[in-house]
Amino acid sequence: MAVHRRVLVLGGARSGKSRIALQLAESASPERTYIATAQAFDDEMRERIAQHRMERDASWQTIDSPLELCDALRDLTAPGKAVLVDCLTLWLSNIILADRNPEPETERLVRLIREARGPLILVSNEVGHGIVPSTPLGRSFRDAQGRLNQRVAEACDAVVFVAAGCPILLKPAPALQLRLE
């Protein structure tokens, strides 16, 4: 059985991706860190953050890192210690809203994923399945998220897509063979 040290967990909103990621991290190591990228700008987001915190027991260390994810990863990945990042979508949103260029941030993140010294689980939304956003900022974000997900998936050993709470392994996958007639 292959060991997957770096795993990307993708899915839509409320798909169950965070629950699956927690299970992966908990099975990887008794020593774990949760890197949260959310910012509580309103009551609804504060409630979501509180709910996520309640899903983790006292064995988890939590680090809030809405913008400086790369620094946190550099400092926290270690052999035998699982790190879970939830989520890359909010991190990217924070980067864009802070008027930072997401491309160099993505390059740095991908490099750190490849250099991770211990189990690393990353959660991200798959935003390209919905309707086309009506604003230039929305379309720009959707495109940047798609590029980020592709780059992170390339750097990871495994990619899991979660739909309706069901994990579907996308990578590694058997070679794609098409028969065209």
Automatic annotation (TrEMBL):
Keyword line: ATP-binding, Cobalamin biosynthesis, GTP-binding, Kinase, Nucleotide-binding, Nucleotidyltransferase, Transferase
Annotated metabolic or biological route of this protein: Cofactor biosynthesis; adenosylcobalamin biosynthesis; adenosylcobalamin from cob(II)yrinate a,c-diamide: step 5/7; Cofactor biosynthesis; adenosylcobalamin biosynthesis; adenosylcobalamin from cob(II)yrinate a,c-diamide: step 6/7
GO BP field: cobalamin biosynthetic process
Lineage: Bacteria, Pseudomonadati, Pseudomonadota, Alphaproteobacteria, Hyphomicrobiales
An example molecular function term from Gene Ontology annotations: adenosylcobinamide kinase activity
Active site (UniProt): H52
Entry similarity comment: Belongs to the CobU/CobP family.
Species the sequence originates in: Microvirga ossetica
Superkingdom, taxonomy of origin: Bacteria
Role according to the record: Catalyzes ATP-dependent phosphorylation of adenosylcobinamide and addition of GMP to adenosylcobinamide phosphate.
Known catalytic reactions: adenosylcob(III)inamide + ATP = adenosylcob(III)inamide phosphate + ADP + H(+); adenosylcob(III)inamide phosphate + GTP + H(+) = adenosylcob(III)inamide-GDP + diphosphate; adenosylcob(III)inamide + GTP = adenosylcob(III)inamide phosphate + GDP + H(+)
Annotated residues for binding of GTP: 11-18, 36-38, 53-56, 86
The keyword Nucleus is assigned to this record: no
Enzyme Commission number(s) of this protein: 2.7.1.156, 2.7.7.62
Protein name: Bifunctional adenosylcobalamin biosynthesis protein
NCBIfam families for this protein: PRK05800.1
Short name of one Pfam family: CobU
